[in-house]
Amino acid sequence: MSSNGPTIETTPDELPRELIELGKSIAMLPVEHQANLDRAFIEVVEAVRRRRRILNLVQESLSQLRLDIKYLMFDLDVTRRERDELRQQLNDNNS
Q1: How far apart are CA 20 and CA 5, in angstroms?
Q2: Domain membership flag for residue 60
Q3: Residue 45 belongs to what domain range?
Q4: DSSP class of residue 15?
Q5: 78: in domain
Q6: How many domains does the chain have?
Q7: CA gyration radius for the chain?
Q8: CB-side exposure of 55: number of CA atoms within 13 Å?
Q9: Which secondary-structure segment (H or E) carries 70?
Q10: How far from the centroid of its chain's Cα atoms is residue 90's Cα?
Q11: Is 6 contained in some domain?
Q12: Residue 7 counted as domain residue
């Protein structure tokens, strides 16, 4: 980390505000203290990004699962209606 701020490139929505503020605070420390915190800060930032990616993947998977369930429910409903219609036809033919 340099006195210019964290070496991590960020977008406003990418990292929590508190983490960005922590990086700025670390950047204001004397160089010898920055060196002690630099690696830990970078690891925390990487962990936050990794968790965010995982969360996005889980959310996408859940959305796909919901859509798949809707299709399955529709298919089940149509299959039941077809079954009932065929039963009715059989009953009508047997009567």
Answers
A1: 10
A2: yes
A3: 17-94
A4: S
A5: yes
A6: 1
A7: 29
A8: 7
A9: helix 31-94
A10: 51
A11: no
A12: no
